[in-house]
Specification:
Structural class: mainly alpha
Number of domains: 2
Strand content: under 5%
Number of strands: 0
Radius of gyration: 33 Å
Oligomer: single chain
Length: 114
C-alpha cells in the first residue's frame, strides 16, 4: 500500500501540473492573439465614441430645432409673397419638415447603429 500512495500522489501532481500548464498556455495564446485583442480594442473605442456622439447629437438637434423655429416666420412670409401656385406653397412647409425629420433620423441611426 505504501507503493500506491506515492504513485497516486505523483500522478495527482502530474495532473495538477498539466492543468496549470494548460492555463498558462491559454494565457500566452491569448496574448499572442492579435486579431481578438484588436477586435476588442476597436469595440471598446467604438462604444466610447458612440456614447460621445449621442451626447453631442441631442444638443445639436435642439439647436437645429431652435434655428428652424427662428427662421420659420421669415420662410412663411417669403412663401406667402412668392408667385408659386397655391398647392405648391402649401406643400413646401411639409416638405421642409419631412427633410428635417429624415436628416434627424439619419443622424440618429448613424450614431446608434454604426
Amino acid at each position: 500500500m505504501t507503493r500506491t500512495s506515492p504513485q497516486r500522489r505523483l500522478r495527482a501532481d502530474i495532473a495538477q501540473t498539466r492543468a496549470e500548464l494548460g492555463v498558462t498556455v491559454q494565457q500566452l495564446a491569448a496574448l499572442t492573439d492579435v486579431t481578438t485583442r484588436a477586435t476588442r480594442a476597436v469595440a471598446d473605442t467604438a462604444g466610447r465614441e458612440r456614447h460621445k456622439l449621442v451626447a453631442v447629437k441631442d444638443p445639436a438637434v435642439h439647436a437645429a430645432a431652435g434655428t428652424i423655429a427662428d427662421k420659420a416666420p421669415f420662410a412663411r412670409r417669403r412663401l406667402a409673397a412668392s408667385e408659386a401656385p397655391a398647392p405648391i406653397r402649401r406643400l413646401l412647409p411639409l416638405i421642409a419638415l419631412a427633410a428635417v425629420a429624415a436628416a434627424t433620423t439619419t443622424v440618429t441611426l448613424a450614431v446608434l447603429n454604426p
